[in-house]
Amino acid sequence: MTPNIYEQITGLDSTMDSISSVFSPLKSSSPKSGNISSHIKTRSSINQRQSHLSSNPYEIPAKTNLHIMTINCRSIKDKRQEFETALHYLKPDIVCATESWLKGVKPGSNPTKDAIMSREIFPPNYNIYRNDRGTLGGGVFVLVEKSIASVEQPSLITDGEIEWVKIKVKHNKDLLVGSFYMPHRDQKHLNELQKSLEQARANGNTNVVLAGDFNCPDIIWDTATALGPDREIQPGLVDIAKSYKLTQIHTVPTREGNLLEVVFVTNPTLVKSTNNVPGISDHDIIITDLETKVHHQKRQPRKCYIYKKAKWNHINMHRPNTHTRRGQRKTSTRVEVHQLWDTFKNQLQNTMNTKIPNKETRSRNSIQWIKHKERKMLKKKQRLYKQARKINK
């Protein structure tokens, strides 16, 4: 008996995304209109097929996915652990955040004396770009993973709550990422947004991603129409989106059945997917994946001391001693204080380098207190969230 022979069918799109897709023909004689969600789904499946049908099965493909998180914090300083947990679990490359409730940092300016410093709030493996509000509440920021080449764009900032960062992209236009917050629906915030977009368009030829809390729940983005109150403001946002060729790609409500957080792009063909996950405030987080390859900077190694293998007896014998020199002088000038400190620091550093083993390591992205048990709980929470969303549809 002749054995069955199975060969791969090439040149045909025969992948079935779901049971319902069986009843939709893959080819038709006339074009079929579609929305952005169907385009995203199709592009995602194509990327998966291309990765599986690679000509070289041993070749490791270059990373082309850019993971963007849009989040409403509602006071980041009060939710530091929750925020770090979200970063650890979702692992975004870029974060567009609103309602930071921080103070003292403006784009292109030195922090004020009473500023809340970024190192007090944010993890060290991100570059932080902030535009704080001068009064209580509000504020936006953009985080970019340190290995990604990024530059803040203070020339694009207006009086509104907006922050811009340019991302260097390989073999394509650079990516201009913005975070915007409109706390009140009024003409002033729309005007400031329009000024900023006009400057961004005049600044260069880039692809734009603008995300944040626009606070316009009555806009039906599929038809680009606005219902309910604020008939002048919400249609104004639709007009701005049309004027600057911005496509709103997210359709799932983010707070109590309202779509407040939205994501605009100028190039929808880059979008692979956009989804909701539970947030750290009463707003959901939006996760957007883009098909783009960014420039990555090589991380500089850092020295890490292995203290459990230290020779503590030798360290105690050779520890720096500045008491004698300091006691010999009844008065010390400011220069001598600095000299004493430099001497102490250098002696201590030499002792550590010779008596404590060390190794070079890269920056650590994980959180020490999140172990296997906590990771399982995070995944379970995400599964339950997805089930609840399906039931409430």
UniProtKB/TrEMBL annotation:
Sequence ranges of Low complexity compositional bias: 23-38
GO cellular component: extracellular matrix
Endonuclease/exonuclease/phosphatase domain: residues covered: 69-283
Gene Ontology MF terms in the entry: catalytic activity
GO-annotated biological processes: cell adhesion involved in heart morphogenesis; larval heart development
UniProt superkingdom: Eukaryota
Biased composition (Polar residues): 43-57
Ranges for region Disordered: 23-57
Pfam family, one: Exo_endo_phos
Protein name per Swiss-Prot or TrEMBL: Endonuclease/exonuclease/phosphatase domain-containing protein
Species annotation: Mytilus coruscus
